[in-house]
Design goal:
Length: about 220
C-alpha cells in the first residue's frame, strides 16, 4: 500500500536549531581529532584513537535510530531495513582489526554477509513496497544527507586518502600518519552526515507515526 507523503514543512526556529546542533557536532569531532593528534601521539588515528572510536559511536547510533524507526514507529520498513543493513555492515567493517585480532581472521566478512544477504534478499522480495517507500524517501532532506555521507565516506575519502596521492604531495616528507589522518577524519565526517540523515529520518517518521495515531491526514 502506498504511503502518503507527510507534511514536510518545518518552521524556521526548528530548522535553525538543528543546523546549530549539526554545526556544533561537526566542530566537536574536528576538535576531537585535533586533540587526538596533539595529545595522543602513540594512539592517534589508530583503532584505539578518538577518530576511530567516534566512527564506531556514530555508526552504532545510526543503527539504533533505524531499529527504532522500523520496529517501534513502523515507518518505511523496507527502506529502513536496507539503510540499516548498509550502516550495520559499515559498523562491522570498522571493527575488522578487533575481530581479526580477538576472534578470527576475516570474521568481519562473514558478519557483513550475514547482515547484507538476508536484508537485500528481503528487499528484493518486497521490491514493490520498497520502490513505493523510496519514492517518498528520495524526496526528503534525510535522503540528501545520506547520499552526501555515502559520497564523502565511500568515494571521496578513499580517493583523497590514497598513499600515492600523499606521496605526490609530500614527496620525501611523506609519512603514513598524515595519509591516515586525512582519510579517517573525512570518513568520520561522512559517517556523521549519515547519522544526521538517520536522525532526520527518525524525526520525520515520528511525525508520520503521531499523525497516524491521531488519525490525521499526512498531506
Amino acid at each position: 500500500m502506498s504511503l502518503p507523503p507527510p507534511n514536510w514543512s518545518i518552521n524556521f526556529k526548528t530548522s535553525l536549531m538543528r543546523a546549530i546542533l549539526y554545526v556544533l557536532f561537526i566542530g566537536a569531532i574536528a576538535q576531537g581529532s585535533y586533540l587526538e593528534a596533539l595529545y595522543m601521539p602513540e594512539l592517534r588515528f589508530s583503532e584505539y584513537g578518538f577518530t576511530e572510536l567516534a566512527q564506531t559511536t556514530v555508526l552504532a547510533s545510526a543503527c539504533l535510530m533505524l531499529i527504532y524507526v522500523r520496529q517501534v514507529l513502523k515507518v518505511w520498513p523496507t527502506v529502513t531495513l536496507l539503510l540499516f543493513a548498509f550502516i550495520a555492515a559499515s559498523l562491522v567493517r570498522e571493527q575488522d582489526y578487533f575481530l581479526d585480532e580477538y576472534v578470527a581472521r576475516h570474521t568481519w566478512k562473514i558478519l557483513v554477509a550475514l547482515i547484507a544477504v538476508p536484508s537485500i534478499t528481503w528487499v528484493i522480495i518486497q521490491r514493490r513496497r520498497f520502490l513505493d517507500e523510496f519514492r517518498y524517501f528520495s524526496n526528503t532532506f534525510s535522503f540528501g544527507l545520506f547520499a552526501s555521507g555515502v559520497l564523502t565516506t565511500y568515494i571521496f575519502s578513499r580517493l583523497y586518502g590514497r598513499s600515492v596521492f600523499w606521496e605526490a604531495v609530500l614527496g620525501e616528507s611523506f609519512e603514513r600518519t598524515i595519509k591516515d589522518a586525512a582519510e579517517e577524519v573525512i570518513e568520520l565526517l561522512g559517517y556523521s552526515l549519515i547519522m544526521f540523515a538517520t536522525l532526520e529520518l527518525l524525526l520525520m517518521a515520528r511525525r508520520i507515526y503521531l499523525a497516524r495515531k491521531a488519525g490525521k491526514p499526512l498531506n
